[in-house]
Every structure is written in structure tokens, then in C-alpha cells.
Amino acid sequence: MDAGLLHRVDEFLRTRSDRALRALLLTQDAREIADVIDALEYGKRKVFALLPPETQADIVMLLSEGSRESVITRLPDDIIARLLYFLDEDDATDILQELPPRRHAHVLQGLKEDRRKRIEKLLTFDPETAGGLMDLHFIEVDPRTSVSAVITHVQEYAKRHKQVPVVFARDAQGIKWISARTLVSSRAQVEAGALSKPIPSLASSTDREHVLDTMNRGVSDVACVVDEHQKVLGVIHLNDLLRVAEAEASEDVYRMGAVGLLDSSYLESRFSTIWRKRVGWLLVLFVAELFTFTALARFEASIAAVTVLALFVPLCISAGGNSGSQAATLITRAMALGHVTPRDWWRVLQRELLMGLALGLALGLVGYVRALLTPQNVLGDADRWMLGLVIGQSVAIICLWGTLVGAMLPLAFRKFGVDPGYASSPFVATFVDVTGIVIYFTIANAVILG
Questions:
Q1: FRET pair for 419, CA 20 to 30 Å: which of 4, 18, 69, 172?
Q2: Are 43 and 142 found together in one domain?
């Protein structure tokens, strides 16, 4: 972003030079204006309101979620209606969903009947589903229709709706897509059905994450949305999924970090909001960590007999937490990319079993050597070689255990319909901490205390 532009906008806001500010903004492109509005600490709505509605339409979807909500919710209904006139119906629906439902009717009254009905139809779908992602610009043609007739139909639609529609053709094999490039490069007398190719068909209630996965695996740029009777309701374009991909990636990162989802950017979110999003998970993890106290209390006699054992507790359990976090991250990402599914659990288990053994051997060797280097005044009556054996074995086994837990938990979560992102690094680390203590002192009791 241009820091000089931001400074000038801030200065015009401070001096209330609205005419000069408007003239300055109209010389900038949409991306620059959106970046400036996002960066402003105050005056976001005023800057946006100074722009003509066609410019507002160009920048509104480029704003961060926090800025967009701050601006849109404070605009009068008639201003929002003029803005929606210049937006695609699916984007207009997204803007309306930023508003309280009680304002929808007042805003829609300012639109033409045909456009209003299309937006009202889109508002009936959950924004987190395929129905909430689709647009309504499509036409269905008979596969036997000639290319020239289809092109004429497309031109008439585009003239009427100011949008070029996606062309579908239905045959015995299902719904197929005819790309615009194929139409304009084919002979006029060719039947449209001969140019069509299969595309994904998605129920309107399909979750947007599944939509993203389906489109990533497909070979077409579009997918059709159908109802329970296989009637086409709308179309989803690949480029419409960019915001979805960003949102899904953010959700995964937040969940893997044990943080609640933020609706706005970090700097635009209130302190109380961020506190609330973080404290819930921290309390859950803190309560879970209290079980380490219970585990340590169970082995109080062992610690009293060989006090040096307590010094190696952080070393041993951190090996399991770190290896488990690694495995959880790898498997969660592999599932997100479609490389691994819960049906692959046996292959994953075999692979991670060998990996856990290899990692455990490497870390266990380091732990063994470190235990042998323990000063005599710290060892007390403990045997140096026995202590090294305990630490080496414990680190190796806990590392193996952490690796298996981290690999299997995301698969188990997905199997039972829970987002694998919840098998986050803190969650895995906490679970392995508690069980690692039990493994460590069980080995110590067997080797040193007999």
C-alpha cells in the first residue's frame, strides 16, 4: 500500500476536505482504495460513502471482513441498494448477509423486481453451503441444439442480464458443461451436445469445504448446484472459491492453534473478542493439563526415592508432544489436500509406526547420552547407567507414542464427522504430556526401583 496516499487521505479526513478527498480517491484503482480503507483507524465509512456506487461495487468485496462489516452496517438502506445494483447477485447476497435480517426487506425494496427475486432466492440458502456460493447466471439447452442457436441464446441472455451465462446441456449421462471458448471456436451447425463435457453436480446443502475439495479434484472450471430432483439451481465458478479457500485455511490454522475463529482481522478485532476466542480453549487445555498433577502424585514415592527422575520429566514429555504435533500437522494437511482419508488408517499406522521408531531411536540416543553426563552431586544414589537406560527408553517410547497419537487422532476425528483441525497441536501435546508421565515413571519403576 502507498503510505503517502494513506497520509493524504488521513489529512483530508482530519481537515474535513471531502471534495479534495473524493477527487483524490477517484484517481486511484480499486485495490489501492480498499487497502487505504482497511488501514484507516477511523473514517472508514466516510471514505467509502464519498465514492460513487459503481466504484463502491468495485472495492467492497476487496475490503477485509472487519472493514466491510464496519462500513456496510452503518450505511443507509438506500445507499446500500444503489451499491447492490452494480454487484453480481451472489456478491449482493453476501453484502446483505452482513446486515441484520430486519434490514433486508428495506434494502431490497430499492431494487428492480427481477433482481430482487433472484437475490431473495439466494438468501434462502446457508452461506456456508453450495447454495450460498452459487450464482444464477446459467442456461440449459437441448444437446441437439446447434452451436449458432446456443450462441444466439447466450447473446440474448447477456443483453438482458448484463452477464454471460454458463451453458449446460443434459443428456442420459447427466448434466454437462459447454465452455464459451468451445462454442465460439466450433462450426455453427455442430450440435451443442457434442461439445459438452461432464462437470461435478453438488447438492445445494453441500458444505463449502466439500465443494472446495470437489473443485480441486475436478478438471472443469465450474460445477452445477442441483436440488433433490436434479434440477439445476445455479453454478459455482472456480474463481469464486478463492475467498472460500482463504477462509477454510484460516479456520484450519486457528483450530490447530487452539484459537476460536476471528470474524475480523487481528488488529480490527476488539480486545474482549480475542480474549474470549483464546480463553475458552486455554481453559480446556489447562484443565486437561491438571491431570499431569494426578499422574505425578501417583508416582510420588518414585520421585522421593530417586529425585533426579523429576529433572528429566520436561525432557521426556516434550519429545512426545513435539513428535505428536508434527504427525498431527502432516496428517491434517494430507487430508485437506485429499491425499489421505480415514480408509487409509492402516497404511498411515504402519508408516508412522516405523517413523516413530526411527525418531524415537534418534531422540532416545541423545537423551541417553545426556543422562550419562549428569553430575554426581545431582545423581545422588542413582546409578548413572541405569538412569541413562531409563531416559533413553522413555524418550524413545514416548516419541513413538506421540507420533502414533498425532497421526491417528485427525483420522479418527474425520471418521466421526469432527473437523480434524480440532486435533490441534496443543490438544495432542496435552494428551501426550499426561500419558507420557505415566510411561516415563512406569519404565523408571521397572528399571531402577525394581
A1: 69
A2: no
